[in-house]
Each structure stands twice: as structure tokens, then as C-alpha cells.
Q: What sequence folds into this?
């Protein structure tokens, strides 16, 4: 069975397109990492799953039910840790969990729940006095009451210290072992990498990658990072190296240049640096990490290509002429 | 019965707010204070002061204060949760938006009821001690009608709160509605007459439709119900005789007034719900 299925979902807010023709399937029993930078549309997607918002086009199904028409039934079988929520400051932690238990018609003991998320000692304190991390733990506790079939966690590590984040991941594994499907949304790769079976990367309202963690790792492994120590690593050089064929990303720090590129592009990169009148003092090659892959998926290539268009000049070699022309005409359009 | 879970939570939460405590003190001061003060100004000796004339005396300030309290109790109900984001916690749980609106109405109404009850209880004690006779039934009836009157404005407050995502708009809208009833409602029939016939006031007796319109104002409905059922002043009878030459039209019945108050609880809340149901949160 499919726990979550989005089919051709588009969501517009006025002129702004938050999601564009999104297709996504999360299988029963898996831990699915939903990755993307802030503003990519992750929370909008979750809002549609919970019927906080309605799709402009397309259809969302959760646990085999229409997410809009049968929302209450969906939420009866789903635990939700929303993003950007607030608690009821005048009520205690125990009262919050009791509210969740009553709402879900569950029969948990509130103290057991608070024990599991590690805030049992604060059960009878008003939540207004909780720290951000404790509030996050409380909401996680409310989400897991009633043993839901599906857990939707939106940026669950918000406000948690590294220890808290680790405990949260352990809890996610426990819930998975119990048989729950987990939809884990985050903008931090390492959170997702540590616990998820499969990852989808959302960018600008579109799914740009969807694979198992090992599959993505493989994809990452084929790309390499060339670390070059140079005599002068300025903006001009960075921009120029970016235009080399096979280069996906370039960053500079101090006199070091990090170039993410295909393995066969390394020689061209070093040649380009030399042709810019910059001396290569040292260089080494590293396999790209998943993190770098994530960055390459989620950084704005549009801006990068505009940059290319503006800064390319006669120094380009024959081979890149086509690309340059294309970039230039693109940036002309932007300016027009 | 998902709404009852929401109502209970909302009551637990709201009953602990400073606003409610302030509201209760305000009610207590108004009712108990007036009961005490009225023994000096209402008649020559405290013993001669009657609870019925006290109720008459209280009716005007209650007509103004209770709506403000009702709107105040209701305006944050849903807009406040949307503004802070606690609505995500609330609707992450299996409640429909209808459950939320009903639960909020019931929760906030309970809070206002408790608050009014405390005020009336203290006033009843003061009256029972100071006044020669204490007609408990009349006092309870006055209290019950006052609660219903407050609920009409809770309904208006929650309805506007549900329809708008902002507490600023909700409080402005709520007080706008109060000002409409307080100052403008009675002018509307005259305005209609001006548009239709070219003269602002009515010459001779007002037409019945304008009386009907006036009785749709919850403040008028409240006063009429209290006057008919509790105070039962003979002056009112005489007035009807003079204006209508006998029994007044049906909409001067206290039952009609009761229906009007109930409608003001339900209709704005229903409209607010329809807007809330369509909203993206």
C-alpha cells in the first residue's frame, strides 16, 4: 500500500506557485526523508496532506484516502508534528497530552508518553515556561499518542540540541519498528540521512531527486570535488571556472577553491585557472559527500547561469562557445 | 463528540487567562456594586428598595457592557490560534473545522457564563442581605437572559474570529458590530424611509416593518425579554395600548426576542464557519 500519494499537485497562492505538478509516493512502512531548503514547498506539501490547505490542481491521498474529503479520518490515523506551531501556554504538558489522547480517542497513559519524549519531570508545569526544545518534545509526544499508522514530522529537530535530536531519531526508529510509516521533512541533510530509507529533494516546488540513501550516495560518488590552492581566488576566477564544462559548483574560501565537477573535467579546470593568469600551488581530489550533492541540487542554478552569462568573455575556449551564447541570450531576456 | 474535546480544552485554557479574571471582576463590580449602591439612590430606605427596580436600573449598563465582554471573550477564539500557529497543533489532531467552531463557541460561552454567574451570585448575596424581599426566580431569569445576551455576542465574536485570520480584524469587526447595534441600527429604518419617501423621520406612527427591524437588534431583544418576563412594568402595557391601540404585533413577544438572541448566537457563527472551512491556514 502507499501511505502518501500526490498526483500532479499544484498549489498557487495568488501569483506565487508553491508547488508545481508534484508527484510523490511514500510506501507503507518506510521512513521517507523530505528534503529541501526553506521555502521549497515542504510545509505547503504537508499542509495539503493535513487539509490545512487545498491543492489548486491535482490530488493528494493519505493512507489510501482523499486528503481533503476524508481529512478527519486521515488525521485520526496520523500523528502530526507541525512546523511553526505554538502550544497553549496556560496548560500543562500533561493537559496537552491528555488533549491529544482525548482527541484521538486513544488510551495511552499521559505519563508514559511524556516519559518517552523525556519531559516527564515537567508534566505538571505550565507549557508557557517550557524551553523551545521541551515544547518540541511535547508536540512529538502528542504526535505519537494513539500509535498512528503514519507520522508526519515537519522539521522535528527544531529547537533540539544534538542530544535531543539524537533521541528524536531513536524515537523515529522505534516508531518505524512498530510498523509506522514516517514522513520526515527537514532542510538539514544529516538529520534525514541518519534515519531515512528514501529521500526526496524538493526545490522551488518541484521534486528534483528521489532515491534511496544508497542510490543518492552512488550518484554523489560519481561527482568529485577538486580542491585547489591558488595564488588568487577572487570572484572573477570563481565565475570563470564555473563556465568550464562538467563543473557543477564552485566555492572559494581564502586561497582555496572547491570545484565540484565530473572526474574528466579536472584537467580543464586546472587549465582554465592557469589561463586566467592564476598560479595553481596545490590541488587534491575528494569524492563528493551527500551534503555536496544536496547543495548542488538545491542551490539556484538559474542565478549561476546568469552569472556565467555576464562574466564570460573572449577568454573562453572554443568548446564552451555554445553554452556561453545560450547563457547570454538567457540573461538578455532577464534584463529585457 | 469531537467538539466537546475542543470545548473542554478551550475552557481549561481560557478560564486561566487574566482577561477572564478581569472580566469576572468587572461583572462582579457591576452587579454586586450596583446592588449595594442602589440601596442608597433607589429609594428612601434600603429596606424599601426592590430587586425588580434594581434589575431595571441594571438593564442599561448591562446592555452596553455585556456585548463588549462577549466580543472580547470571542474575538481571539480562532483568529488567535491562526495567528500564533496553535491551530496547527489543534487541527493536526482529528477535529473537523466544524468541531473547532462549535467547540470554541461552547468553550467561550462557558467561560462567559461562569463569569456572569459569579457576578450574579455575589450580587444575589448582597441583595438577599440588604433588600427586604429577594425574588430569587426573577433574579435567576434576569441572569439567564443576560447569559444568552452575552452568548449572542460570543457568537458574533467567534464568527468574525473564524472568518478572519487576524485578531486585529476580529476585534475591530466585533466592536464595529457592537457600535452598529448601539448607535446605528435604529437609524437604518429612517434611512430606508428617506431613500423610499424622501423624508428622514417617520410622520405619524412608525410602520410595523421598522419596529420589526428594531427588534432584530440583540440589545433591543434583550431589553424586551427582561422587561416582559422579569420587570413586567405596567408602563409597557400602557405604551402598547397607546401606539398599537391594543396588543402589539407578534414580534414584540418575548419569545420572538429569545429567538432573535439565539439567531445571533448561531447565524454569525455559521457564516464564520463557512469562511473558515474554505480558508488555507
A:
Amino acid at each position: 500500500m502507499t501511505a502518501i500519494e500526490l498526483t500532479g499537485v499544484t498549489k498557487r497562492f495568488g501569483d506565487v506557485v508553491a508547488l508545481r505538478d508534484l508527484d510523490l509516493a511514500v510506501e507503507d512502512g518506510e521512513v521517507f526523508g523530505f528534503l529541501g531548503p526553506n521555502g521549497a514547498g515542504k510545509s505547503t506539501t504537508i499542509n495539503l496532506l493535513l487539509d490545512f490547505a487545498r491543492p489548486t490542481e491535482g490530488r493528494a491521498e493519505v493512507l489510501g484516502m482523499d486528503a481533503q474529503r476524508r481529512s478527519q479520518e486521515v488525521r485520526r490515523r496520523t500523528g502530526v508534528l507541525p512546523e511553526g506551531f505554538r502550544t497553549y501556554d496556560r496548560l500543562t504538558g500533561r493537559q496537552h497530552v491528555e488533549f491529544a489522547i482525548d482527541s484521538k480517542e486513544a488510551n495511552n497513559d499521559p505519563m508514559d508518553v511524556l516519559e518517552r519524549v523525556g519531559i516527564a519531570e515537567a508534566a505538571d508545569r505550565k507549557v508557557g515556561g517550557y524551553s523551545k526544545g521541551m515544547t518540541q518534545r511535547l508536540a512529538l509526544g502528542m504526535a505519537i499518542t494513539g500509535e498512528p499508522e503514519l507520522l508526519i514530522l515537519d522539521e522535528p529537530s527544531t529547537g533540539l540540541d544534538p542530544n535531543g535530536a539524537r533521541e528524536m531519531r531513536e524515537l523515529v526508529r522505534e516508531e518505524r519498528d512498530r510498523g509506522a510509516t514516517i514522513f520526515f521533512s527537514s532542510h538539514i541533510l544529516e538529520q534525514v540521512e541518519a534515519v531515512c530509507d528514501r529521500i526526496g529533494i524538493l526545490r522551488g516546488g518541484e521534486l528534483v531527486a528521489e532515491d534511496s540513501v544508497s542510490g543518492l550516495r552512488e550518484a554523489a560518488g560519481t561527482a568529485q570535488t577538486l580542491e585547489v590552492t591558488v595564488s588568487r581566488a577572487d570572484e572573477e576566477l570563481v565565475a570563470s571556472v564555473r563556465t568550464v564544462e562538467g563543473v557543477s559548483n564552485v566555492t572559494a574560501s581564502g586561497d582555496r577553491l572547491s570545484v565540484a565537477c565530473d572526474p574528466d573535467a579536472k584537467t580543464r579546470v586546472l587549465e582554465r585557472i592557469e589561463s586566467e593568469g592564476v598560479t595553481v600551488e596545490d590541488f587534491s581530489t575528494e569524492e563528493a559527500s551527500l551534503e555536496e550533492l544536496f547543495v548542488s541540487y538545491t542551490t539556484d542554478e538559474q542565478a549561476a547561469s546568469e552569472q556565467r552569462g555576464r562574466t564570460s568573455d573572449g577568454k573562453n575556449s572554443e568548446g564552451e562557445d555554445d553554452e556561453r551564447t545560450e547563457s547570454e541570450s538567457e540573461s538578455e531576456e532577464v534584463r529585457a | 463528540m469531537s467538539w466537546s474535546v475542543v470545548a473542554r480544552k478551550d475552557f481549561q485554557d481560557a478560564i486561566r487567562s487574566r482577561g477572564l479574571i478581569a472580566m469576572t471582576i468587572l461583572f462582579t463590580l457591576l452587579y454586586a456594586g450596583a446592588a449595594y449602591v442602589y440601596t442608597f439612590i433607589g429609594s428612601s430606605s434600603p429596606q424599601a428598595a426592590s430587586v425588580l427596580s434594581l434589575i431595571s436600573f441594571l438593564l442599561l449598563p448591562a446592555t452596553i457592557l455585556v456585548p463588549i465582554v462577549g466580543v472580547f471573550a470571542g474575538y481571539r477564539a480562532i483568529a488567535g490560534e491562526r495567528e500564533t500557529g496553535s491551530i496547527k497543533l489543534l487541527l493536526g489532531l482529528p477535529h473537523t473545522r466544524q468541531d473547532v467552531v462549535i467547540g470554541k463557541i461552547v468553550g467561550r460561552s462557558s467561560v462567559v457564563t461562569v463569569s456572569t454567574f459569579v457576578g450574579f451570585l455575589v450580587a444575589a448575596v448582597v441583595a438577599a442581605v440588604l433588600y427586604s424581599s429577594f425574588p430569587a426566580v426573577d433574579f435567576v431569569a434576569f441572569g439567564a437572559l443576560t447569559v444568552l445576551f452575552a452568548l449572542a455576542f460570543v457568537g458574533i465574536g467567534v464568527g468574525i474570529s473564524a472568518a478572519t485570520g487576524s485578531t486585529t480584524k476580529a476585534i475591530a469587526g466585533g466592536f464595529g458590530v457592537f457600535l452598529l447595534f448601539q448607535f446605528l441600527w435604529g437609524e437604518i429604518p429612517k434611512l430606508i424611509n428617506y431613500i423610499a419617501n424622501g423624508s428622514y423621520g417617520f410622520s405619524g406612527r412608525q410602520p410595523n416593518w421598522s419596529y420589526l427591524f428594531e427588534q432584530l437588534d440583540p440589545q433591543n431583544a434583550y431589553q424586551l425579554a427582561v422587561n416582559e418576563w422579569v420587570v413586567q412594568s405596567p408602563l409597557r402595557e400602557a405604551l402598547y395600548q397607546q401606539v398599537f391601540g391594543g396588543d402589539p404585533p407578534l414580534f414584540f413577544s418575548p419569545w420572538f426576542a429569545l429567538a432573535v438572541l439565539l439567531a445571533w448566537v448561531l447565524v454569525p457563527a455559521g457564516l464564520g464557519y463557512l469562511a473558515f472551512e474554505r480558508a488555507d491556514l
Summary: Chain A has two domains: 2-212, 223-335. Residues 223-335 of chain A form a domain with the Alpha-Beta Plaits fold (CATH 3.30.70.100).
